[in-house]
Amino acid sequence: MNDDLLVKNLVPLTFVATSDFTAVTKGRSLPSAHLKEGSTTGWVPANIGIGAGGHIADKIPFGATGDLRLRPDPEAAYPITGVPGKPDTTVVFADVITTSGEPWGCCPRTFLRETVKALESEFGVTVRASFEHEFMDRDGADAHHPFSWRSFRAAEPLGSRVVTAMEAAGLEPENWLPEYGKHQYEVTMRPSDPVSAADRAIVVRDLVRDVFAAAGRRASFTPMLSPGEAGNGVHVHFSLSDDEGRNVFFDPNRPGRLSELGGQFAAGILNRSRSLAALFAPLSASYLRLRPNQWASAGIFLGLHNREALLRLCPTVEIDGRDPEPQLHFEFRGGDVGANPWLLLGSVLRAGLEGLREKAPPAQLREGEVNLRDSADDIPEFPHSLEEALELFAADEEVRGWFDPDLVETYLRIKREELDEVASLSDTETCEWYARVY
Ligand code: GLU
Ligand code: MG
Fold it and tell me: Per DSSP, what are the bridge partners of residue 173?
């Protein structure tokens, strides 16, 4: 453990955390003074089988026996301060390991780390990433107006509290704004290494909910709070650079200035997206969001600056001669809060890696508006339901094969039980069910 950090932020309790398959932050706390370099704390395999409803799914491959350890990552300690009525604390993310110190096959954080390592060792590229979150203030009482000063002020002092706490935690906040939807807000963070970016995504959700709860308000990141309204996305921005720090997605001589390698990476992602939807859009309510005319991702394509794309090639800013090269990057717009951030980013990068390995024909970059209802545009659709998404994932030998078989089996069991739980609910009730969880 980073002793310096602990001394600087000596708080009574440190929460050693992981995030499970339903993206709920879990773990256990220790008196901070007991946490020494190399120390680990106990964990239970069956915990990963707990679904969004809060109970262990039936017939998962883990039972009453078995033990694991949570190994805190000294680079991943986040001081949590400035939440009224709550003591300061530290969250430190852990990798899940076996009692003999081996990586555990179902640890989502390890999956992301290994994927990043493979990109580095096979292609000599380093990833930078950041997550962008939208959520709704369920107790907002003002007449919300998109992007307005009025709605910015309506959220105060909570906006300032969130951003101050983010700064203190080292999350590097970038923007805080009232979004388009009713009582919807957005928070963005600066790019970092991919594991930290996903760690930060986990912290920011809990922090926002905490700050709002302390004021007696409920913040929800659920992908759809009520059917037909604006959705809440989790967008992931990322770029790749070589060992000299050059952006390997940038080529000034190609359409959109997207390099051939960038096109291959995009193709790797798009070609597997129907099977990956079970991971990035993993809630029944996710499929109420991935539809046209909401500025959410509405089809499986690479779009130049297009917000309905699954993969958006983002614009660069060249005011006063600023260099576009380091700026050019992708935004993956299909994700939502139900996706574990390590699995979300890990699977997107893994799919891109496969695109490089197989030297896939570069993805077509679609420029201008795209008519998703016009079959002439020939754009693959997302699965239409979580049920269909799970079937596609379960049937895809390649994508399944990236993961430990226990991870796949447990994931599918949890998600199928979740489907049973919401099966008899109307869309409105389903949205309400998820809003309570997320
Ligand atoms: N709310 C949209 C979504 O569900 C995104 C809007 C935007 O930030 O472009 O993803
Ligand atoms: Mg937004």
Answer: 189
pTM for this entry: 0.96
Q: Report d(CA 287, CA 297) in Å as an integer.
A: 11
Question: E-assigned strands of 340-425?
Answer: 365-366
Instruction: Show the tokens assigned to 403.
Output: 């993961």
Compute how many other C-beta atoms are within 10 angstroms of the C-beta atom of residue 208: 24
**Residue with the nearest Cα to atom 8 of ligand 1?**
295
Query: From the CA of 134, how far away is ligand 1's center (Å)?
Result: 8
pLDDT, tens digit (0-9, with 9 covering 90-100), for 187-200:
999 999 999 999 99
Distance in angstroms (rounded) separating the CA atoms of residues 51 and 416 = 10
- Pull the structure tokens for residue 206: 């809990």
Q: Which atom of ligand 1 is nearest to the CA of 307?
A: 9
Q: Which ligand is nearest to the CA of 280?
A: 1
CA distances from 81 to 6, 178, 335, 366, 434 (A): 14, 23, 28, 45, 28
Structure tokens at 53: 């409803």
- The whole-angstrom distance between residue 92's C-alpha and the CA centroid of its chain comes to 18
Secondary structure letter of residue 2 according to DSSP: -
Burial of 145 (0-12, 13-18, 19+ CB in 10 A): middle
Strand intervals (E) in 282-424: 302-304, 311-313, 330-332, 365-366
| Ligand 1 atom index nearest CA of 294 | 2
Residue 7 has a pLDDT of 46
CB contact set of 22 (below 8 Å; sequence gap of 6+): 50, 51, 52, 282, 338, 340, 414, 418, 437
Q: What digits encode the pLDDT tens for the residues 314-366?
A: 999 999 999 999 999 999 999 999 999 999 999 999 999 999 999 999 999 99
Enclosing H/E stretch for 236: strand 234-241
Other CB atoms within a 10 A radius of the CB of residue 226 amount to 16
